[in-house]
Amino acid sequence: xxxxxxxxxxxxxxxxxxxxxxxxxxxxxxxxxEDFDDAETGETQGLTGESGPAPQLVEDSGWKLVHxxxxxxxxxxxxxxxxxxxxxQLIILTLGLILFAIAGPAHGGDVYEERGTMMGAALVxxxxxxxxxxxxxxxxxxxxxxxxxxxxxxxxxxxxxxxxWQSTMLFTSIFFPTVIVVIHSILNTxxxxxxxxxxxxxxxxxxxxxxxxxxxxxxxxxxxLFGRNGKNLMGGPDSGTIARRANDFPCRVNSIPRPIPxxxxxxxxxxxxxxxxxxxxxxxxxxxxxxYYVLTSLWNYKFYHVYGFMFAVYIIxxxxxxxxxxxxxxxxxxxxxxxxxHWTSFGSGASTAFYVxxxxxxxxxxxxxxxGYLQVCYYFGYTMLICxxxxxxxxxxxxxxxxxxxxxxxxxxxxx
Length: 416
Description:
13 helices, about 0% strand
């Protein structure tokens, strides 16, 4: 599995590098020809006093064509910023739990020896990592929310009317807890109806609520305030003034948005409708073997103890998700000439969760003997929670990989 993923990732990386090299070469030749024509026209005017032949203008094509809109603020900025903040919180939470399990003997024994060890560690890590969620969401919102008019000709920064930093802070604080509360409320109601021992007692609910209200929410608010006033994490200098803020992006943003081509004029491999679902196949292929053992430990009462292997799979998931999101973003910009790459890159990574859900359905039908309303509710309830968490995590990985890619290619090409 490792060798297959590494081979495919290397092959895709090689193809992308060769394609980008050709793009840069084509754009460089076009820029040189245009400069040469300008110089030749100037010499003709100086010698004869008459205007020479007009230079031949080479039209931009592909991803360079959207340079004036590629850094425009995405739709629903507050929601995207909160999802990215929650995604980084889940990335740190998952990594911390894996390292905590690997270091089991260092803190008193393997984590599967005592019931509730991993759950307790997850609650503590989630509450403490709320600062990270707030900081990332506040910082991302600040980058894309700026005054509409700046100096230097008609240069304009992306502005967004989709929410405010207060709504970003609110979404970050309540999004993932709301998902957990809704799912567990349904499961707890079903458990109460059937009178099982899986019912969460009232005092435990009060303790969890107090942990969220008095620790998680305040840390998220503090993180948002720091992110809103701190240094940019997406590249570029700190945005202390409007003039410096304009330099956070490699290209200036046009005052009038460029029309996006109709879907009828775009090839199928340039449409987000096809790019997003196809992008999740390779990341899912890198984890599905490990996913079998995780589901077996959850539903077939087996001990899971190969956390070192899980850590390796986690790193591979990082790499593969980033690569596939970069590829889908490139096709979106180049073939579709669509500068709304933000949600496309996030959806490309998040689509991995869809295939995980399909595999979970297959596992339920062919690998378990579960039956009855209670077992079905618990299985698919926890499966939905896993898929939402994994989708947010992978979507965040895909977005930041695509963001680094977009900034790199537009910073290394001459824009007139």
